[in-house]
Amino acid sequence: MHRIRTASLILPLMFLSAASASQNPYTQPLKPKGFSANAIALPPRTIGKTVIRAKHSLAVEIRVEVEEYLPRNMEPTLMIDGVAIVGPSGVAGVEGNITTLFFVVEKPELVKDKAVLTIQMGDDERTRAAVPGTLQRDKIKPLSLNETKRLELPALTEWFRQR
Amino acid sequence: MVGATKTPLRKSTTAVRVRRLAAAIAILFIFDAVSIGARSAMGPQRGVSEPITEVEAREVGSAATFRSFGKTGRFFRVAGVKMGASISVPMKAADAALLQPASIRLFFLNSRTQSWQVVSQSKYDARKEIITAPAPGPGYYTAIGASRFSEVFQAQRDLCIQPSRARASIPEICRRINCPADGFAEAAQTVLQGTKLPMSPEELAERMGGICEECFDKPAGPSDFPECQLPGVMDRQSFPDPSIIIVWPIFSCFDAANGCTPGPFKVGQVDYDFEDEFDLIPAASTTPAYPGVDVRATVRYPAAASGVNQPVAGTGRYPLIIFLHGNHVTCPCSCSHTCPKANRIPNHLGYNYLLEVLASRGFIAASIDGFDVTCAGSAAMSDYEARGRLVLRHLTKWKGWDAAATDPWSGLFYNRVNMNMIGLSGHSRGGEGVVAAEVINRTEALGFQIKAVNAIAPTDQDPYIRYVPQVPYFLLLAASDGDVSNLQGLRTYDRTSPAATPPQSVKEMLWVHGANHNFSNTVWTPAFGFACASDDGSGGGRISDSLQRLVACQSIVPFFRLFLRNETGFRKLFLGDVTVEGLDGVRMFWTYQDPVRREVDNFDSGGTGTNSLGGPVTTSGGFSSFSKIAVATSPLNFHFTGGLLLGWSATQTYTTELPLPQRNVTGFGALALRVSQVIDALNPVNTPRTFRVSLKTTSGTISNVSFDVAGLQSVPYPYPDNGGKTVLGTIRIPLSSFRNGNVALPLNDIQSVILEFRGTGKIAVDDIQFTK
Q: Of A4, B480, B754, B772, which has the fewest CB atoms closer than 10 Å, so is most exposed?
């Protein structure tokens, strides 16, 4: 019964996917509209005896706004000056037809001034698209002083100097 | 004599012929069972490892006199049971699990009326592992021992999966013999009432066939119970005693080629929905990574009647299987989590076609709605760990519902969930999620008894950790996957149970040409009308969405039946020895690794001159390509294993030698190797060529087995329509196939394995091993 009700409610929407049978929508290029960046504190993380992160660490989260984002199972990939970032990513939020994707950069040397950002789904180059704007370190919102002290993290400017 | 006893229900000559055929098959089966039993009595042959022991029937509460016919007798007989006394017959729970609860009955032959009847109030006590019943009176009682069930079951399985019979004959007889929903017991009672002694097995088979045919053909007949049930074994001698009790071993006679066939149980349905049940918080943190996670699922289970909220069938516990979907839109064409609940995309309902069959086969199957971890993410906890922990949260619920009457349905599942037999199945990110659940459960000692894990087109992309299962693992991989198009899930197979890394477990893989990512979930399939469903596949050679679901059902259901219900006949399916019903035109390639093996060469280390055992490797010297393939490099870049690249344009041989202490392979049953063709001018598509696999003894005797490398039969050709990915498949050659004329090769003295190639070709090879 529930299924019938659900199906009837969304049946009209099936026409939105009318082209799906003839064209794989997952191969379409993404439509990034802009981005923002801010420092975040990554918490400790363990699974059983596997220690992924022993204590809090500083990282930069880059949030990219994408229009008409269609999720798939391959993770989205952020590239900074062509270098693919390995780290957590996902959907940070949705506002109308704009989906905000987040990417966590844990290596400070990758956060370079005037760096060009591109995004794609996984390693699928067909979906690649340039993100408007360039990266600027001084535009990255730092953690609050209190949070930085409480978690014994370096200041963002200091973190940039790390290798 | 067959057909000596006619049933009055026959209506046509055709029907008679069909029935006689069915009867003949049944008789053949019975004789097979008997003869195998006789062979087994002489020793552990034909895979029957346990010696026969007679059943220990005993009288309860009185000093009855027992007399056994001894170890070679077929029946154990109990004499002098007083009127009103009870008798009990032991039956292991593992054996009982193979039967329908309603079928576990004692039969007796009433000496006055000369008719068979079910012993009233006979029932199976799972806790004590005995069948108990009041004795019908003084006399001799005969039981076919539970200790012999395994050999009977094995005989039935052997019959069922013999290609020559299984495809045509067994389903035919299954349809006729399966009638009552309640199982064989009632059918037997109906048939046997009024039967005069002596009655031959042939006569019995004839009568069973006739009655069941009528039953099956009734317009309102229980044709939704196509489970095949056959009488286990009947002694060929007539029964001399006035009163006989038989514990009738009934095997759910599956057809290994058709494991998706619905079983005997009616299917019940419930749904549970706990909104904002818990926060997913990383260890050592107080901030939720995923706040307010719902615990919601749809459930199918074996029920007393079909429909919602029906009582669970029978009295025992049923294995639990949890399904988890992958990443997809949460609201119509959007990753939003704020659309009205009724408008949400019910991603978890897309596996109902599997849940229904599993429930009919005696599993409780639940599919989780991962709404809060779908189209989501967290820097603090990966999507995959979150999915794994969500699965474990559901298991916690089920554990509680089994332990006490606390479920939302007034204790429906109280004492009914076999929490010692848990299976997990996940699709896409859900595939990585269920493997994560197994890893987290094990490494954090949570105590859930997860016994089998299946992943359908899984991801493998947690940025920090690679999850590796340590239980039987089945990977279903789609060649035309247009979502996880880099086939990253293939690596999970390679990483599972690598050489010399205990504990080892079975791992299996099915590589399906023409299958895409989405069609395994009906909600993601355009034909079902949900928003933003799509066909992600590309290229030619595609298979339809319904065919793809049949592939899933014909492999996933058998996987769980094999590892959660010990229906070992399905092992042959995963070895690639069975042509799957309904999928003749689908190019499918099986890969299988047994924990018991001797790896001659896994190509993961060393050069080309020495194998993994330290033995020398030599060639004829003329290979156009002869090099090690480093882990995860071309042409095995989608794998996570090394290999050997061999190219040839004239006859060449490759010889890998076993060191002297390793030459006794009598403990193994087969030689296996993983092979794939690679895209190359030496490998024109669909051009038949062969290579031979040989074993050579120290004395120089050579025995060959030839294989076709056309890509259509045993060796996968790279699926050309999705980037030409090279995926290894297993060739498995029974050691009994290697013969020197009529003489078996001495398996205690195998010096070397020789691969001989003719014509032209180029292949990747990995994991040359002797295996169980």
A: A4
